[in-house]
Amino acid sequence: MFPKGEVVIKRFRNERIFKEYNGHNARELAWKYGLTENWLRTILRENGFTRRK
Q1: Alpha-carbon span 8 to 49, nearest angstrom
Q2: Which of 5, 8, 20, 30 could form a disulfide with 37 if both were Cys (CB 3.0 to 4.6 A apart)?
Q3: What pLDDT score does 53 carry?
Q4: Mapping DSSP to helix (H, G, I), strand (E, B) and coil, where does residue 36 land?
Q5: What's the predicted TM-score (pTM) here?
Q6: How far is the C-alpha of 3 from the C-alpha of 33, rounded, in Å?
Q7: What is the DSSP string of 8-23?
Q8: pLDDT tens, position by position, for the chain (53 residues)?
Q9: Residue 35 CB burial class (10 angstroms; 0-12, 13-18, ≥19)
Q10: Residue ranges per structural domain of the chain
Q11: What are phi and psi of 22, to 5 degrees?
Q12: InterPro entries from the entry (predicted)?
């Protein structure tokens, strides 16, 4: 069974967010990816990211 397209797109988006996140740019990334800042921080937190220095 293959993942649905939406799941693949979200995984790809999240991987991009993880690479671009520097601990201080959550607001910019949320805007870039069409997310709320709270939702972006939830994605980061659920994947083990903390505020980077």
Answers
A1: 20
A2: 30
A3: 47
A4: coil
A5: 0.82
A6: 21
A7: HHHHHHHHHHHHH--S
A8: 667 889 999 999 999 999 999 999 999 999 999 999 999 999 999 998 876 54
A9: middle
A10: 5-46
A11: -120, 10
A12: Homeodomain-like_sf, Mor_transcription_activator
